[in-house]
Amino acid sequence: MAAQRAVALCADDYGLSMGVSLGILEALDAGRLTAVSALTNVDRWPAMGRELARRRHDADIGVHFNLTLGRPLANMPKFAPGGVFPPLREVIRAAMRGKLPMEEIRAEIDRQIDRFYAVMSRAPDHLDGHQHVHALPGVRTALFDALEKRGLTGEKLWLRDAGDRMHRIVIRGSDMRKALAVRAIGRGYRREAVARGFLLNEGFAGFSDFDPQSDYAAQFETYLRAPGERHLVMCHPGRVDEDLRAQDPVTVTREQELAFLLSPRFEEVLLVRSAALGRLRREA
């Protein structure tokens, strides 16, 4: 039998709604996750964050930095003039043109990280971005600055690198359009993060078209192909509720992902791919 390779499995969007958060907690309590990424700008964060804090020894818990869903924590008259974050395409376009209002974004970065501290009473184990905005030019530099200011460099925290190597993306063949797009917008992210002394995953998968007709178990198996040395897989499990439906188009597939994670088939897929769950956090 081939030697098992450790794979980190991170559930994104914790705090988005009560249903999503409870579903993630269910998977975490079942030992099916090794990391959780939390939206700290949302209304549900303080209450649900306290539930997550009780499980701080069970998984790496981090910030899911957000610029595209819901509202900022304070006024951003240039970036979010209507009080609501702009859609992803507008954020990408402005970032690629160097037109983001960085003073406002730097302030929102501080607010979202500070709100994690306020609820968890400790530093995050990792940081990534909702819809991968953390890797955008300008945004990433501001995030690195904010983490350095807090002394969160080296092995005190790990960062998500969602832009995997081309040959791995091709071998997996799972939603290559998204994988290649994220790789493109994040070009230079890894180089800058490493140069500044941050720890990152090495290998990334989990892109999905969120099609309820897809076989998520079969899709998940592709995420474990061509793994990197510190392989990270993202997922989006959860329970559907009205709060979720009002905020996000991704609904049914969250329950499908959760059902798979809690099923015997999950362990079977890990076995087939000679994989075992593991954490990326290293004690400083």
From TrEMBL:
<dbReference type="GO" id="GO:0005975">
    <property type="term" value="P:carbohydrate metabolic process"/>
</dbReference>
<keyword id="KW-0378">Hydrolase</keyword>
<keyword id="KW-0119">Carbohydrate metabolism</keyword>
<keyword id="KW-0479">Metal-binding</keyword>
<keyword id="KW-0460">Magnesium</keyword>
<dbReference type="InterPro" id="IPR011330">
    <property type="entry name" value="Glyco_hydro/deAcase_b/a-brl"/>
</dbReference>
<dbReference type="GO" id="GO:0046872">
    <property type="term" value="F:metal ion binding"/>
</dbReference>
<dbReference type="GO" id="GO:0016787">
    <property type="term" value="F:hydrolase activity"/>
</dbReference>
<protein>
    <recommendedName>
        <fullName>ChbG/HpnK family deacetylase</fullName>
    </recommendedName>
</protein>
<dbReference type="InterPro" id="IPR006879">
    <property type="entry name" value="YdjC-like"/>
</dbReference>
<dbReference type="GO" id="GO:0019213">
    <property type="term" value="F:deacetylase activity"/>
</dbReference>
<dbReference type="Pfam" id="PF04794">
    <property type="entry name" value="YdjC"/>
</dbReference>
